[in-house]
Design brief:
heterodimer; A: 262 residues; alpha/beta; D-Maltodextrin-Binding Protein, domain 2; 2 domains; five-stranded mixed beta sheet; 14 strands; 39% helix; B: 254 residues; mainly alpha; MetI-like fold
């Protein structure tokens, strides 16, 4: 008994004192690698995409090596709070609600919501969804989810955990529509032309994307804002477009939709 | 007087264990610099209560259906009709050998869609029952095999018909032996039902995920979620313990 107690005590003390590991001078960037082409993985499983390149540019600007942490969407903000990551660059829309918990940089991009509609469904525009017999698929915690909860209260809202589940629900007619950003809706419609329609006409103000950091970290916030200004002035966003989104840019121009970084 | 040192020893141990566990969690929270704040959860009490009820409903309905499925599979396994026996064996093997998450996606989006099971609550109960049924079949098989051959010989000797043998001998013995394990399985069903959140059934886990997307208090939400599941499974384990005691009595009486 005494031995066991002694062991437990030692373990407990060790846990307390081994604490504070040395601060490493790197920039840890959190993102959910499930949103191509912004945050995704290449064929070898390495982080890849617009936000990854943006994070690397930020690291270069700050003179710090960058480490990407892949974190589920609903874990991103808590990771900032617990200092597991320094900054979140994950196509995150700046919302009032989120800004209560974290600080946002100046917007660096903006996007519009759109609808992926099942071919058989009579839905033509977002307002058509606000009926008791309509079923909406959204990804948990996204701005599409928030929009549905605030504006489409008469419909049934099914909050699913992944983009692919939402798309599947629409394809199979389990949902009338999936609310997500224009680019993804466009791509998913291209991939499933026989079962879906895309309603790309913007039905709300544009959503501004910002980098999120822990509340009160003024120094980092100022540095990030300076970086965004610098990066934009140097034509960095045009380079990102060229590298990752050349096809999409053409389509958006043809459709007359405003581009992410304009 | 004799009992007091034991009691003293017991209570000291309980306090010690509690201090160690709470201390460990507390130190962990301090180390990540997090202060728990459960106050934001209060606003969601109605939805949490709805989710709690939905979890219970899903688990209870699945318990009933899986009992049926499990009994049928256990019997079929012993069937002389080989097709039936193989079917049951393969069912049990595959279901027990694959993750529930895979089964949920497969049965909901492929089988369910192909055969018109569009109601997600019904689909959820069926999928969970299919999963738990395989485990229950094994519990029942184990129970059947544990009954001594001599019991059947005795039944034959006193001239019981097969039907009466089942009703008067096999069934009561089987029940007494597998009831504790079955209630234990019910605790598993309660926990496993959390995976139904992936098809947007508004049970506790789904509600908690939605709340997390709203208040960003992931730790508090999941802490509380764990507590709610524990309340349910702890109640079940109390029942299990009670049944186990009853089973022991029956054994000693026999």
């Amino acid at each position: 008994m005494k031995k066991i107690l002694a062991v437990l005590l030692v373990v407990l003390l060790a846990a307390v004192f081994s604490g504070c590991s040395a601060e490493k001078d790197e920039l840890v960037v959190g993102m959910e690698l499930a949103y191509p082409p912004f945050e995704t993985k290449d064929e070898r499983g390495e982080p890849y995409g617009v936000s990854v390149a943006l994070a690397e540019a930020l690291g270069e600007y700050l003179g710090k090596p960058v480490r990407i942490e892949n974190i589920n969407w609903d874990g991103l903000i808590p990771s900032l709070e617990t200092e597991r990551v320094d900054v979140v660059i994950s196509s995150m829309t700046i919302t009032e609600e989120r800004a209560k918990t974290v600080d946002f940089s100046e917007p660096y991009a903006h996007a519009y919501l759109a609808l992926l509609v099942n071919r058989e469904s009579p839905v033509e525009k977002a307002e058509d969804l606000n009926q008791p017999e309509r079923i909406i698929a959204v990804k948990k915690g996204t701005t599409g989810h928030v929009y549905a909860q605030n504006h489409l209260t008469n419909a049934t809202i099914n909050a699913l955990s992944s983009e692919s589940a939402c798309v599947t629900e629409v394809i199979q007619g389990k949902a009338d529509a999936f609310i997500y950003d224009q680019l993804t809706i466009y791509r998913q419609n291209q991939a499933n032309p026989e079962t879906t329609r895309a309603v790309l006409i913007p039905f709300q103000e544009s959503e501004k994307w910002g980098m999120a950091i822990k509340k009160g970290n003024k120094e980092l916030l100022e540095q990030i804002n300076a970086f965004i200004k610098d990066f934009r002035a140097a034509g960095g966003f045009e380079k990102l477009t060229e590298q990752f989104l050349a096809e999409e840019k053409k389509t958006f121009d043809a459709l007359g939709f405003p581009w992410f970084f304009e | 007087m004799k009992k007091s040192p034991a009691l003293f020893y017991k209570s000291i141990s309980v306090v010690l264990v509690t201090v160690i566990l709470v201390g460990f969690v507390w130190i962990s929270l301090v180390r990540i610099n997090h202060r728990l704040d459960f106050s934001t959860l209060w606003a969601y009490k109605y939805r949490l209560w709805q989710g709690f009820k939905m979890t219970l409903i899903m688990a209870f309905a699945s318990l009933l259906v899986s009992l049926l499925l499990g009994s049928v599979a256990a019997m079929a396994q012993k069937s002389r009709f080989l097709v039936l026996s193989y079917l049951a064996k393969i069912y049990i093997q595959i279901i027990r050998g694959t993750p529930l998450l895979v089964q949920i996606f497969f049965f909901f989006y492929i089988i369910g869609t192909a055969w018109g099971v569009d109601n997600r609550y019904l689909a959820g109960v069926l999928i969970l029952s299919l999963f738990e049924g395989a485990y229950i079949a094994e519990i029942i098989r184990g129970g059947l095999e544990s009954i001594d051959e001599s019991q059947f010989e005795l039944a034959k000797a006193v001239g019981l018909t097969p039907a009466k043998t089942f009703r008067l001998v096999t069934f009561p013995l089987l029940m007494a032996r597998i009831l504790p394990a079955l209630t234990g399985q019910f605790a598993s069903i309660i926990k496993d039902s959390s995976l139904l959140s992936v098809i947007a059934i508004p049970e506790l886990t789904q509600i908690t995920q939605e709340i997390s997307a709203d208040n960003y208090r992931l730790f508090e939400n999941y802490f509380f979620l764990g507590l709610l599941y524990f309340v349910m499974t702890f109640a079940v384990s109390l029942i299990t313990r009670h049944l186990e005691r009853m089973y022991k009595h029956e054994n000693s009486a026999g």
